[in-house]
Amino acid sequence: MLRMFAVTAAIIAAGYVYLPAQEGAARIDPVTSASVARPDNKEFTVSNMENGAVCIVTRGKLLSSRSRQVQASADCEQVWPGLATARNWTDNGDGTVALTNDGGEAILTLGFGDGVEYESLEPENAVLALNGIG
Asked: Tens digits of per-residue pLDDT, 72-82?
């Protein structure tokens, strides 16, 4: 009888040790997926208010403290001349953003918009709006 009591006590004690360890391990998600969007990427629709053309621009990874990589779709050429060659998104520190090509030439200067995320400031004849997707 004493032996049976000792075995039962050992089983109960093992349960108290084993179950909390399993409970804590269940909180960790072991799945890693490349299909989850990177938090530093953001897509924008770029709309030309005069001709109605629209395209997608993706602001990507950080290149420096003020600059991010940009990828513009080929149809962005219909939205604004040279926009398809945009490669850099630079925060100017004054509330404006410059979109530049590989050579550092400014294509557009954008500012926070009224009713849109960004609107074109320069060149003066650009009437463009950028809105984040998602």
From this structure: 999 999 999 99
